[in-house]
Amino acid sequence: MPALPRHVPSSTDLHGLRWLRSSYSTGANNCVETARLVAGRSAGLLAVRDSKNPAGPALLFSPESWAGFTAAVPHI
Hints:
By secondary structure, the chain is of the alpha+beta class. It is 13% helix and 24% strand. It has one helix and five strands. The protein has one helix at 63-72, and strands at residues 7-8, 20-21, 32-36, 46-50, 58-61. A hairpin with a 7-residue loop joins strand 4 (46-50) and strand 5 (58-61).
């Protein structure tokens, strides 16, 4: 079984997603946005992109990997 992709070159290739920003976002467009993939072989993964470049690349994480990352980041 081939490995799942870990990124997409352009987040515009991910159709029908609802991108969300953190409630801690200031609205200055300097944060990350996340969206849950619901279809295809990457269903269940979490896509993460830079809000300053919504057509740029997106990284893909398993829910467990993203939870581990966010738990390790200090809350300011």
